[in-house]
Structure formats: structure tokens, C-alpha cells
From TrEMBL:
Pfam families: PGK. Gene3D superfamilies: Phosphoglycerate kinase, N-terminal domain. Its main location: cytoplasm. It catalyses: (2R)-3-phosphoglycerate + ATP = (2R)-3-phospho-glyceroyl phosphate + ADP. This is Phosphoglycerate kinase. Substrate binds at D19, L20, N21, R34, H57, L58, G59, R60, R120, R157. It is found in: Cytoplasm. Keywords: ATP-binding, Cytoplasm, Glycolysis, Kinase, Nucleotide-binding, Transferase. Its EC number is 2.7.2.3. Belongs to the phosphoglycerate kinase family.
């Protein structure tokens, strides 16, 4: 893979595919970790005299503009973080390949930075049809002379800006991708054991598939968050109105059976925190949740965090691990009533000590997991590595060819 050093960028329009998919509360960015992670590559390009065209997705709009997913607040924050290297300002294009994008890119001076509007406002970005994606990539290619792939969190997506565009322009990998791959590679080689993997979050259908592979690598797999209820259902328990991937229940039953054969330990919640409905994350008003046994979730109630006994169990299962990979919050940590499980697991990572002595090597992956660690007040430097990609790092660990990495190869 070429790096930025292999490109002559001065005076050239350089398209940087970043992952600036940050959590928002209205138009307020609640955690800017992914923007901070994107800054070094953008700054280097700008300081080398490139005209930098930054692009990203945010959330999952359905191929048309939706104001709540606008990247406008991100442009402002990116300008603040880049500071003097761009005069504190990043020009924002209110579309991706339309008049605003053409005009903004056209008026860039050497060393200037622009951010395009959300790539997913265009159906071509995520289309499964190669020709439709290709046509959108052709339009994007008109905006740039060179391509730098640096959106690690999206490299597992076969999307136009990630996969098709680099085929149309001279390309290189940015510094963030190089760092992420460098660290995660360690987890695919000889890991120190016991190796524990913690999985949670809400992207259940996306991430259940990786368990098949993780079972051949990890000694223990701890399941929480929205992921837990498909497992509890597979064990024959009712899960009320909790997040459930019904069509995956048979597959999960298979994982549990195979894990026994392989001697891999699955750790599931023994109790869960439930409420009648999903909490209002804006108001953050107390919701009066109750804790119930995981095998006795009442009909109509929704599991929103692992319970206190599960927190203790998970901490104990992490305590003697030598290597830990964690993706996905244990509960709806954005609301204080459902943050305890995520806090317990984060603390568990920090307290873990390998049987041979010394702190465990810990990796936290995922936009929300990384945000949770910071928002709950943990020092991000206390972890071995905080990856900007959740699904991306899981698929990397699986040994899959990731479209956004394959496309950067020569
Ligand atoms: N039991 C649950 N029910 C619904 N959503 C949940 C539950 N537990 C966690 N979540 C949500 O999962 C989201 C993060 O999931 P995900 O995107 O998969 O993680 P990451 O971004 O770290 O990869 C958070 O917004 C959190 O509120
Ligand atoms: O947030 C992301 O992934 P993650 O939640 O797995 O860390 C990336 O920005 C990818 O987003 P997507 O899962 O909507 O393609």
C-alpha cells in the first residue's frame, strides 16, 4: 500500500475519505474522537500544499438529504481542530457532487480544506448495484486528482467512496488506516491468553456473523448490549420487547453448541435492567428502571443494560485476561440509568491483569464504544488502543478482505 509520502500532493486536489460519523445530540457533537483521529492526515496534506476535499458519511440516511444527518456541525469542529493550518475554517459544501461541491472545491487555494455534505445523501454511495455505485464514483472522481483512504471505520463497506473511487484515481492510505491496521494485526497473530472478546451494541445483524470466527480465536466471549437478547432467546428465554434478531436465533443456537465443542466460554447476562420503552436520550430524565433475572424478562419490557450481578460476573471474567478486544456498549449508555454495564466493562478492561503478570493488552473498537469510554470519564490513554472502527475492526480480525483496504493496494 502506498502512503501519503508516495504522492506529490502540492497544488493537487486530494480527496480524503474519512469516517467522521460522530454521535450528535441535535447539532451538538457529543464526542469528537473520530474528527480528532482524522486531523493528522488532513493537516499533513494541507501543510504540504494540497487542496484537501474531505468526505464522509454520518448515520444511515436512505440515499436522500435528511437535515439531522448533515455534516455541517462537523465542518465547524474540523476547522477548530485544524486551527491555524486552515485559518480556523473548513469550507462546507452543502451537497456532495452538485453545484456547491464543485464551487467549493473549485475555489480552494493550496493548503485549503473543504468538507462535502454526507456521502449517503446520494443513493449511489451505498448501492449494491456496481454500475450505480460506479456512476456516483465517476462524479466524485471529477472533484479530485488524488485519493487518500483514511476512514478506517468504514473500510468494511463496499461503498462508492470507499471501494470504487480509489480505482479511478492514484491513491494511498492515510496515517489513521496505517496505525489501526498496525495495532489490529497484533490481534491476528499470536495473542497472549486468556483472550477475551466483549461484544455488545445495537448493530446486531451486522456483527453476529463474526462470532463464528471469533470462536476459533478467543477463549471467552462476553455478550451484552442489544446483542444479548438474541442469545437469551436462543437459550429458550423470552426477551419482552428487547432488541431481537429473530432470524438469527437458529444460527446463534449453533454458535452456543459449537462453543461447547471448542471449549470456548460464552458469558451471557444473568440479570438485565428493563423499562417499558426506549429512554428519551435528550431529556435524560430518570426512567425508574427495574432489574430482572435474564431468564425472566416480563412481556412488554425492554432490556436496556446488563444488571449489577452481570457487571460483577463480567468484571470477574475479564480480571485474569491477558488480551481483551471490546466492541459495542453493554447498554444504552447515553442515558445515565443504563450506563452501569458499559462502565463496569470499561473498568474491567483497565483492571485486567494477565496470569503471567502485567496489565492486559486492551483494544476498544467502535464509534459508540470509544465515545462511551470518554463520555463516562475514563482516560482514553489508559487503554492499549482505541480503534475508530467497530464493525471494521471485527471484520479485520475475522481475516476478511476489507473492500476499503483492498482498494488501496497497488
Ligand atoms: N440493550 C440495548 N438495546 C438497544 N440499544 C442498545 C442496547 N445496548 C446498547 N445499545 C446501543 O448500541 C449503540 C452502539 O452500538 P454499535 O453502533 O453497534 O457500537 P459501536 O459504534 O461501538 O460499534 C449505542 O448507541 C447504545 O445505546
Ligand atoms: O460507526 C461506524 O461503525 P461502528 O458502529 O461499527 O463503529 C462506521 O461509521 C460505519 O457506519 P455504518 O455501520 O453505518 O456503515
Amino acid at each position: 500500500m502506498k502512503t501519503i509520502d508516495d504522492l506529490q500532493v502540492a497544488g493537487k486536489r486530494v480527496f480524503v475519505r474519512a469516517d467522521l460519523n460522530v454521535p450528535l445530540d441535535g447539532t451538538t457533537i457529543t464526542d469528537d474522537g473520530r474528527i480528532r483521529a482524522a486531523v493528522p492526515t488532513i493537516r499533513r496534506l494541507a501543510e504540504a500544499g494540497a487542496r484537501v476535499v474531505v468526505a464522509s458519511h454520518l448515520g444511515r440516511p436512505k440515499g436522500a438529504p435528511e437535515q439531522q444527518f448533515s455534516l455541517a456541525p462537523v465542518a465547524q469542529r474540523l476547522g477548530e481542530l485544524l486551527g491555524t493550518s486552515v485559518g480556523g475554517e473548513v469550507a462546507f459544501a452543502t451537497d456532495t457532487v452538485g453545484d456547491s461541491a464543485k464551487a467549493t472545491v473549485g475555489s480552494l487555494a493550496d493548503g485549503g480544506v473543504t468538507l462535502l455534505e454526507n456521502l449517503r445523501f446520494n443513493a449511489g454511495e451505498t448501492s449494491k448495484d456496481d454500475a450505480v455505485r460506479g456512476a456516483f464514483a465517476d462524479e466524485l472522481a471529477q472533484l479530485a486528482d488524488l485519493y487518500v483512504g483514511d476512514g478506517f471505520g468504514a473500510v468494511h463497506r463496499k461503498h462508492a467512496s470507499v471501494y470504487d473511487l480509489p480505482a479511478r484515481l492514484p491513491h494511498a492510505a492515510g496515517g489513521l488506516i496505517a496505525t489501526e491496521v498496525g495495532v489490529l494485526r497484533k490481534l491476528t497473530e499470536d495473542v497472549r491468553r486468556p483472550y477475551a472478546v466483549v461484544l455488545g451494541g445495537a448493530k446486531v445483524s451486522d456483527k453476529l456473523g463474526v462470532i463464528d470466527h471469533l470462536m476459533t480465536k478467543a477463549d471467552r466471549i462476553l455478550i451484552g448490549g442489544g446483542m444479548a437478547y438474541t442469545f437469551l432467546k436462543a437459550q429458550g428465554h423470552e426477551v419482552g420487547s428487547s432488541l431481537l434478531q429473530e432470524d438469527q436465533v437458529p444460527a446463534v443456537r449453533g454458535y452456543l453448541k459449537r462453543a461447547k465443542e471448542l471449549g470456548v466460554e460464552f458469558v451471557l447476562p444473568v440479570d438485565v435492567v428493563v423499562a417499558p420503552s426506549f429512554p428519551d436520550l435528550k431529556a435524560k430524565a430518570p426512567t425508574g428502571p427495574e432489574t430482572v433475572a435474564a431468564d425472566a424478562i416480563p412481556a412488554g419490557l425492554m432490556g436496556l443494560d446488563i444488571g449489577p450481578r452481570s457487571c460483577e460476573l463480567y468484571a470477574a471474567k475479564l480480571a485474569d485476561a491477558a488480551t481483551i478486544f471490546w466492541n459495542g456498549p453493554m447498554g444504552v449508555f447515553e442515558h445515565p440509568d443504563y450506563a452501569a454495564g458499559t462502565r463496569a466493562v470499561a473498568q474491567g478492561l483497565l483492571d485486567a491483569e494477565a496470569p503471567s503478570g502485567g496489565a492486559a493488552f486492551t483494544v476498544v473498537g467502535g464509534g459508540d464504544s470509544a465515545a462511551a469510554v470518554r463520555l463516562l470519564g475514563f482516560d482514553e490513554n489508559a487503554f492499549g488502543h482505541i480503534s475508530t472502527g467497530g464493525g471494521a475492526s471485527l471484520e479485520y480480525l475475522e481475516g476478511k478482505t476489507l473492500p476499503g483496504l483492498a482498494a488501496l493496494e497497488d
